[in-house]
Amino acid sequence: MIITIYSFKGGVGKTSISVNLSLTLGWQVYSNDYYSPLEDVLPKERFKKYEPNEEIPPYMGKDSLIFDFGGQIDFRIIPAILQSNFVLIPLINEIIDIRVTISTIEAVRELNDNIIIVVNRTQKDDFQQARKQILEHYDYPIFEIKKSRAISDVFKTGKSIQAMVARGGLKRFNYSSIDHQFQTLIKHIIINR
Ligand SMILES: Nc1ncnc2c1ncn2[C@@H]1O[C@H](COP(=O)(O)OP(=O)(O)OP(=O)(O)O)[C@@H](O)[C@H]1O
Ligand SMILES: [Mg+2]
Fold it and tell me: In the CATH hierarchy, which fold is given to the domain comprising 2-192?
């Protein structure tokens, strides 16, 4: 299985979602980021960074793969999207973000219509608001990932949210709802692949 996580907008959580999925499921991650924080978190054999002019060969590995592609113009996104079972488009509930998300969806759906929307970093009614706006235009599945310290903790500890919750204690208490949101997203991906 191959998933591309992509948006024209920066800072929407592409890398954060990539790292937790990779740590939870043991998936590979390919990145085109000039500097990727994943270099410090993921085991070497599970992460590859492609330099700006480096060709990305068609993926033949047997593990599943995530393309975490930063938003700069990079034509290698096209074969990545074409190879993918799903394109996951994260957004944050801000006016500018919704607009950029719609442009992203318009561009992606020309290549691959298996789109999953993730409203990330939600608080209060962010999810309902963003969902309503997206549903006015599209009927792609939409998931929520709340704003949580769990994300920075993943980068700090190199552990998936699921693993932190499994260890119990306060983290189980604080992170179980974001863990549940990730599990819901993962279930959808696995069932519908
Ligand atoms: N659910 C969340 N809760 C709290 N903080 C989050 C969440 N998701 C992302 N962040 C934070 O938001 C910032 C941007 O996230 P991230 O780097 O994953 O975005 P990106 O889309 O990969 O950005 P870029 O376009 O620069 O590659 C980071 O500081 C990250 O820790
Ligand atoms: Mg990133």
Answer: Rossmann fold (3.40.50)
